[in-house]
Amino acid sequence: MKLREDIRNIAIIAHVDHGKTTLVDQMLKQAGMFRANEQVRERILDSNDLERERGITILAKNTAVQYKNVKINILDTPGHADFGGEVERIMRLVDGVLLVVDAFEGCMPQTRFVLKKALEQKVTPIVVINKIDRENARPEEVVDEVLDLFIELGADEDQLDFPVVYTSAVKGTAGLDPREQDSSLEVLFETIVRTVPAPVDNRDEPLQMQVALLDYNDYIGRIGIGRIFRGTMRTGEQVALMKLDGSVKHFRVTKMFGFMGLKRVEIEEAYAGDLVAVSGMGDILVGETICPVEAPDPLPPLRIDEPTLKMTFLVNNSPFAGREGKFVTARKIEERLKLELQTDVSLRVEPTDSPDAWIVSGRGELHLAILIETMRREGFELQVSKPEVIEKEIDGKICEPFERVVIDVPEEYSGQVIESLGRRKGNLLDMRHAGNGQVRLVYSVPSRGLIGYQSELMSLTRGYAIYNHSFEEYRPKLPFEIGRRERGVLVALETGTASTYGILQLEDRGTIFVEPGTEVYEGMIVGEHNRENDLTVNICKTKHATNIRSATKEQTQIMKKPRIFTLEEALQYLDDDEYCEVTPKSIRLRKKILNKSEREKLTKKRKM
Fold it and tell me: Burial level of 303, CB count in 10 A (0-12/13-18/19+)?
């Protein structure tokens, strides 16, 4: 069998914040992809604003480096399980993976998740123990943990015989021994070329290319990015696009690009094993195959895990609707959701009985929150409901998703964390003392028990806990109500402006969510009540001016700092009868029914 020794295709997979994108930066720099005087920022591949702000990879991206006579195509994948749809389709494009693991933290839930996807596709793994220069690094123990994880996930004998490279991505050093580091990543490059199989060179056979990523350019339209599995592709030739619904469309390849460094290079011809970007087809979708017109032969469609969480997206109908957003109509919101479906294979959008509402399903809270935040920054205004888990019927039983949770917490808070997860029907799988005052708790918890849990955990542990979770499997539904908010809320009585006097009068009733001068409307949530029930309050109340001197006039009252929610915190805080109103400038919580008397009537009906 003839092989293309001049090319290697690899993906880099890791848990969030284990140094994957930083390692790609160093590989690009050391392979000479930048001029000596070129200004290069950190985490080059995190091009999206949200990625740079949060320090996580959201979208899979591809780049390439030239090492000696070999071109190494590198695909950087997201580390968070909520963006697992990106990981799954990338695994079809590559022959090997670099599994990057933190030398101190070891295997985390997302490490397990992304590795499982890689092993399922039978790709060749290389384990990279990163942050070897970190204080308390424990490389030998981490390698043992990785080996245990490989065995647990059912790796075959060839996959278990993985090479290990120890690196410091920040310093750009690597070595085959944890105590000895070379001054460059030479060892890593050599290991990739030696270990990762070269693609089969079958360029003389009929063309087969599968699209795994989509891009868009204002000048040339939609671009399909994928791998040529067989044959040769040339610019200007007529090809057949095998659609997912079984239909066939013919088009001409207008432009074709290869990758080198961060640039796309226009090319005239590409062969089996190459990763290319192709334009010329207006409606290409992920998973579709490009073949010759005379020999249509589609590849199997990409299998993507189903969504586990759903929310209702609605047109904003609050009293302040249309004030801050550019796109507020049902038509605009629906168009934007359909556009997102074209590039995000893990997302589902279903219509409802109302023309102003859609059920949007995704892989987790972060997945949906990133979509909402992106729409908000584009000028959209909308409302969303509380996230709910998606239940399935399996073998005649109603099943719900369960997640694997890993929490690193100081020992003094471990009892409170165990108690809190016990209330949410979590099952403790493992408890390990790290030896530096930290405890690692590993749990299996129903997904609905984790909605809103992060903010509770941070309060319990004074912000010291490190919390990670990823989808595990569907199991029979537990017959309990889990994870409801324990406290009621303070709801505004009338439309107006929150006053300092009104807020001071309410501070002993609970925690306030708004600052003085904030405009509020009837039914808007302005704080959390100290008790279980909701309380309607007049936050706009002002002090009546009289000519009688107050006995307490000289006393200074200090106002507590209000609790201002981020988008994720607001979504986690919601209850069943509430919406989160999202605009480009504001995030407001509100009751579904704004009028106090109508809410009370409904509550009485339910009790009866």
Answer: exposed
**Crossing angle of helices 414-423 and 453-460, rounded to 10°:** 150
Residue 60 contacts residue 117 (beta carbons within 8 Å): no
C-alpha 266/C-alpha 263 separation (Å) is 10
Q: What is d(CA 357, CA 312) in angstroms, rounded to the nearest whole number? A: 7
Task: For residue 529, give the amino acid letter.
Answer: H
pLDDT at residue 557 in the model:
66
139 and 181 in contact (C-beta within 8 Å)? no
Strand partners, 180: 177
Rounded Cα distance between 342 and 516, Å, is 43
Angle, to 10 degrees, between the axis of helix 330-343 and the axis of helix 365-377? Answer: 120
Cα 403 to chain center, whole Å?
A: 15
β-pair partners for 306: none
Q: How far apart are CA 382 and CA 312, in angstroms?
A: 10
Q: Indicate the burial class of 44 (C-beta count within 10 angstroms; 0-12, 13-18, 19 or more).
A: buried
H-helix or E-strand spanning residue 398: strand 397-410
Instruction: Supply 173's token pair.
Output: 């050093």
Question: How many CA within 13 A on the CB side of residue 135?
Answer: 1
- CA–chain centroid gap for 10, Å, is 21
Separation of alpha carbons 372 and 93, rounded Å: 29
Question: How far apart are alpha carbons 408 and 414 in whole angstroms?
Answer: 9
Tens digit of pLDDT for each residue in 563-588? Answer: 888 888 888 888 888 899 999 998 99
As a whole number of angstroms, the distance between CA 147 and CA 254 comes to: 47
Q: Report the 3 state secondary structure along 35-67.
A: CCCCCCCCCCCCCCHHHHHHCCCCCCEEEEEEE
Sign for the pseudo-dihedral over CA of 118, 119, 124, 126: positive
> CA–CA separation, 120 vs 118, rounded Å?
5
The whole-number average pLDDT for the span 357-385 is 88
Separation in Å, CA 287 to CA 84, 221, 222: 16, 18, 15
Q: Which of 26-35, 93-102, 368-377, 513-522 has the lowest mean pLDDT?
A: 26-35
* Counts for the chain of helices (H) and strands (E), in that order: 15, 36
Residue 162 is encoded by which pair of tokens? 């993985």
> In sequence order, what are the beta bridge partners of 387?
none
Give the helix ranges, DSSP H, for 352-509.
365-377, 414-423, 447-450, 453-460, 500-506
pTM (predicted TM-score): 0.74
* Distance separating alpha carbons of residues 52 and 55, to the nearest angstrom: 5
Which residues, including other chains, have CB under 8 Å from residue 333's CB and lie 6 or more apart?
Answer: 313, 315, 327, 358, 375, 380, 382
Distance CA(88)–CA(105), nearest Å, equals 24
Residue with tokens 């985490």: 43
How distant, in Å, are the alpha carbons of 334, 504, 517, 553 from that of 556? 52, 12, 20, 8
Rounded distance between C-alpha atoms, residue 61 and residue 77, angstroms: 7
| CA R_g for the chain | 27
The SS3 assignment for 221 reads strand
